[in-house]
Design brief:
2 copies of one chain form a homodimer. In chain A, the strands form 4 sheets. In chain A, strands 1-4-5-13-12-9-6-8-7 form a 9-stranded mixed β-sheet. Chain A has a 5-stranded mixed β-sheet with strand order 15-14-16-17-18, sandwiched between helices. Chain A is α+β, with helices and mostly antiparallel strands. In chain A, a hairpin with a 5-residue loop joins strand 17 and strand 18. About 9% of the residues of chain A have low confidence. Chains A, B: Keywords: Aminoacyl-tRNA synthetase, ATP-binding, Ligase, Nucleotide-binding, Protein biosynthesis. Chains A, B: One of its GO terms (cellular component) is cytosol. Chains A, B: Its EC number is 6.1.1.21.
């Protein structure tokens, strides 16, 4: 059967032809990473009176391809959360300012406040943990295993090329409730292990430590009680700074005796496996600390549970891990990618997940100070996006920003109603279908669009097809064509898509 | 084989027993709709000095069951967006204040501003349309079909029982680009039709009108040009207020001549189908307006395309539809649920989706005023959630907040490591598995937990099972049990779950 479609197709010059008049090219590749605010300063201030088109400092837009990458990462994380039977909650993007006050120590200066427009004093959330504790206390919840994926806000110095923004996603998983020691804690370590394994971003280590071990250590070394948190906060910088700098902060800024600092220095450089835990249990100094011994016993139990959960090989006991936040009370952990490919332009990507036990936070919100013990973790998802995207690019996979399965094309003029009818028919069957927004688009442009967007099938019509009540179904990669009756179109398309 | 599991099970007293010591009951049913801030005033202000545990005015938390409902609604909407080949984008939650200035007319006072903490002047986004236009202009995009699902912020008077909040979701779908008349516009109408049909929330109507018809009408009736937008904004209130009140606003507040108002009144009460369009084309007054005639021609074409797309039966041409926002320039539409069950406690739910053509907005951001024509729509998703939830409750379906497939239970003490090993094994195979966080949970409590949470399978172990290297797989609803070797566990579980 010689149809207009065939005639038109015979004119088809090959891919190399660039089409410019279709006005329906996908924008994904163009937008991708095209953000004028990157690394941008406060240009709005520089030229008063002139309107500057940008996003706020430290923020950016995400284009179609980037969003497709994020969806992939989110899907993996969600699936692991669901595997653990976690429920989802959502809290407002801002909280009463009082809710955030006194929770973040030195970092409180980074909180975004809302303008007082009459009413309550509000701040944008700084993390998802404090809103979670507020939620647990407010609703008098005794136990819950929840996840929460949302953006948080910090007026920090942005380093956008390293994936550090003022607005960024956190993926949190927390277990609240009075349970037996280390079982929920081990589940958190297992969950980090599962997510990083499934994302397949190269090798990683899960560092663990315990606030009671650190506090016990500070005690036996002679740190005054009121300096425990500031000294802990100094130790926390060991992953970015050499010991000499940390020691300087302890001695010069925080007024610690040099000998005490040196003593701490000997311990915080230790890292190892179970044998280190056993060694420290018998350490002459730590033997005298109940706190340290309790923490070390927890570590032993945690290691055992991790063994049964099959995730102990990645776990390293690291005495130098301290975690910045004040509210941790027990086990703390942090996952770092160790593979060479994860070195960004500006150095290693560093920590991609972290967390720990915070048994006192919920009590801070309860009128009677009744608390609910909690343990949880947070994925630094922006870094995971960056690495996942690098990996995709390295594989030179072309990521699709859409999922379209069929493009409806016309070989001649005056077919717009026929195209709409076919779209309606295919949509009715749940088939993802697009067509041109032009009344009379050129056939070459239509076919090129399908090819550029990796749409697997084209449904082609011309006057003779319409008259005969048939359509042509064309496979884009093979250019193989079948003519089918319109009533068989859905079945044929599903067959070809393998979704029958 | 007589095992400890069997012994323990023989003691199993029926469902009616309430268990209290397990400490792992799901919190979903408890939290559900338990929000102390509902309808709450600014209680934080009433008692200065005293810390009040609440969410900010006009906002709320969403608990596990509510989130599960939202996921269902979002999934339907996402699937329709993907069916149309839309890409996803994301923009920051705040914009430079200048970006929002002069876009919302009278409603600008409802914008949340951020405190000036040194740096840029920022405001929380008020909708997703203006950020989209800013994105299109900033990235010099000539065409894109995108969706964006995110929360927006309005310092409005909250009416939380009616689903009106200060922080709420919008689901936006927009088509930007220079295309042939009414093809993208018809796709938007079709998409509203598809989403509302699939959500199955009862009957609905899609009202359509055209800003050019309204402007043409105002012109021929004698409305002065500078009063076009204020009078349009008055007409917009017709869905909530009777004509008499709207007329009063026109005459008393906005200084329109009484006769002019009465003349407008005759037209804006008209609604109908194609025959009304034809009638108005021949109307003595509207014949004299080029604008009105152009708008009416668009309406005819839109109706024809809707016919081909199979969605014209729900479309009603309503001369009283005006839409509040200033930026519309062409077709406008609004979907309302009409079924009786959708009357909330405080009256009908009203509009659940709306949108229109806004050809000038992108140009407002372009330094050379180069514009990109746009048409789009926004689902008022909070209302859809409310109605969907009511429907679910009416069906007395118990919604699950989790997806757990297997609960691992122990019939005797000292089984925690064995349970963890089985969890690890099942997770490895992608099976959603939970267990108790207690060392030695009671068997009754474990089985009750599985039943309460609608977990279909329980994997049971006791000492004899561990010795023999087997486990029991119990189907929770039938209480049917099978003993299988541990190496066959994954296969058996998959078989029973029907996911082999």
């Amino acid at each position: 059967m010689e149809s207009q479609v065939d005639e038109e197709l015979s004119k088809l010059v090959h891919k190399s032809i660039r089409m410019c008049d279709e006005g329906q090219k996908p924008e994904a590749s163009k937008n991708h990473n095209n953000n004028t605010s990157r690394g941008g300063g406060e240009r709005g201030k520089d030229k008063p009176g002139k309107f500057v088109l940008k996003t706020p400092k430290g923020t950016r837009d995400y284009g179609p391809v980037e969003m497709a990458v994020r969806r992939q990462v989110f899907d993996v994380i969600h699936s692991v959360f669901h595997m653990h039977g976690a429920v989802e909650i959502e809290t407002p993007v801002f909280e009463l300012k009082d809710v955030l006050t006194g929770k973040y120590g030195e970092d409180s200066k980074l909180i975004y406040d809302l303008e007082d427009q009459g009413g309550e004093k509000l701040s944008l959330r700084y993390d998802l943990t404090v809103p979670f504790a507020r939620y647990v206390a407010m609703n008098k919840i005794t136990n819950i295993k929840r996840y929460h994926v949302a953006r948080v806000y910090r007026r920090d110095n942005p380093a956008m090329t390293r994936g550090r923004y003022r607005e960024f996603y956190q993926c949190d998983f927390d277990i609240a409730g009075q349970f037996d020691a280390m079982i929920p804690d081990a589940e958190c370590v297992q969950l980090v292990h599962q997510v990083l394994s499934r994302l397949d971003l190269g090798d990683f280590t899960i560092k663990i430590n315990h606030r009671k071990i650190l506090d016990g250590l500070f005690g036996v070394c002679g740190v005054p009680l009121e300096k425990f948190r500031p000294i802990c906060s100094a130790v926390d910088k060991l992953d970015k700074s050499p010991w000499e700098e940390v020691r300087k902060e302890m001695v010069d800024e925080k007024g610690l005796d040099e000998e005490v600092a040196d003593l701490i220095g000997e311990y915080v450089k230790l890292s190892g496996k179970e044998e280190l835990i056993e060694k420290l249990k018998n350490d002459e100094r730590l033997k005298n600390s109940k706190d340290a011994q309790a923490g070390l016993s927890d570590m032993t139990l945690l290691y055992q549970y991790c063994q049964s959960l099959g995730c102990e090989s990645k776990v390293v006991f690291d005495m130098g891990l301290a975690r910045g936040l004040d509210y941790y009370t027990g086990v703390i952990y942090e996952a770092v990618l160790t593979a060479g490919q994860n070195q960004g332009k500006d150095g290693p990507v560093g920590s991609v997940a972290g967390g720990g036990r915070y048994d006192g936070l919920v009590g801070m919100f309860d009128p009677k100070k009744k608390t609910v013990p909690c343990v949880g973790l947070s994925f630094g998802i922006e870094r995971l996006f960056t690495i996942h995207e690098q990996k995709q690019r390295a594989l030179s996979e072309k990521l699709r920003a859409t999922q379209t399965e069929v493009f409806v094309a016309a070989a001649c003029k005056g077919m717009v109603h026929e195209r709409l009818k076919i779209i309606s028919l295919l949509h009715e069957a749940g088939i993802k279908t697009e067509s041109s927004y032009k009344n009379n688009p050129k056939i070459l442009n239509q076919l090129q669009y399908a090819e550029d967007n990796q749409i697997p099938l084209v449904v082609l019509i011309g006057e003779s097809e319409v008259e005969a009540g048939v359509v042509k179904v064309r496979e884009v990669t093979t250019r193989d064509e079948t003519t089918v009756k319109r009533e068989d179109l859905v079945t044929t398309v599903k067959q070809k898509l393998g979704t029958k």
